[in-house]
Amino acid sequence: MPREITVDDVPTPGLVRPRRLRRTEAIRRMVRETRLSVDNLVYPLFITYGAGVREPIESMPGCYRLSVDRLGEEIEEIVGLRVPAVLLFGIPEQKDERGSGADDEHGVVQEGMRAIKTLAPELMVIGDVCLCEYTSHGHCGILDGEEVDNDLTLARLASTAVSQAAAGADIIAPSDMMDGRVLAIREALDANGFSNIAIMSYAAKYASGFYGPFREAADSAPAFGDRRGYQMDPPNQREALREMELDLIEGADILMVKPALSYLDVLALARQEFDVPLAAYNVSGEFSMVCAAAERGWIDGDRVAMEILTSIRRSGADIIITYHAKDAARRLRG
């Protein structure tokens, strides 16, 4: 029968006691390895058509579809919280097969950019470049039958990027996952006098099940099929690094991993591999799960949200796009 182990059998403590550095909040703060700051945060906004619109998004508590004339209150709050940037998505009044609203000079996103730059010139405006919100079929490009034609789509994406830059975008963020789109956008921006506009590429964007609430918010679900033919296959890790390397070669300034939580391993590998700024998108499904569980009293929503954002930062993200940004900014401000 094994002998019972007593305190006397344990080597005398004293050489190493990690708990000494966890004893109080003050000492924990002093030795903290990962620092999450409001400077790391980007808040997504959904710009819709019409006037006087502030429509709650049911599956994303605290988030709204806003018409351009209702942006003022939202922007004032964001600037007051010192969140440095917003990422804009558009919901046009009309959609068609080519996604014509995407590069419309007077499209909802373009008008939203102009309004924001008037309200708060110092606020960074990032333009999501994709066609899914603007096409009648909900896919991210021009169709050939039921397949997205990669090369025909590139010209539409480049035109959209230029129109957003002309409207005041500080950063262009292509999210379509077409091959060669970073190069097409970089060349178009440079040719039109926008060589100073940075590109934040959705370099490793996975065909994820976490996008459901966003598709409700942006009215962008595919009318048929899915996006697995162009977004990345979730089991793949090495492929993400290849996608990132290609986007850097084509001219990307910032690389993104999307979603964040299920792909922290990819983010951490990218941090080891690439010495460039990295972004991660804490997507709608990740946000909504926290909100739903907190509403039921199953978790402390604020605490869990901050833990999630810290984990994303710890894994290597310099920029975190998140619907938690405003609440996180309040907590970071104390």
Describe this protein's structure.
There is one protein chain. The chain contains eleven helices and twelve strands. With 334 residues, it is an alpha/beta fold. Helices cover 37% and strands 17% of the residues. The relative contact order is 0.13.
Key traits:
TIM Barrel; alpha/beta; 17% strand; 334 residues; two-stranded antiparallel ribbon
What are the SSEs and their pairings?
Elements: H1 25-30, E1 41-48, E2 54-56, E3 64-67, H2 71-80, E4 85-91, H3 108-119, E5 124-129, E6 143-144, E7 147-148, H4 150-167, E8 171-174, H5 181-191, E9 198-205, H6 212-218, H7 238-250, E10 254-258, H8 264-273, E11 278-282, H9 284-295, H10 301-314, E12 319-322, H11 325-333
Helix pairs in contact: 2-3, 3-4, 4-5, 7-8, 9-10
Nutshell version of this structure?
This protein has 334 residues and is an alpha/beta fold. The protein is 37% helix and 17% strand. The termini are far apart.
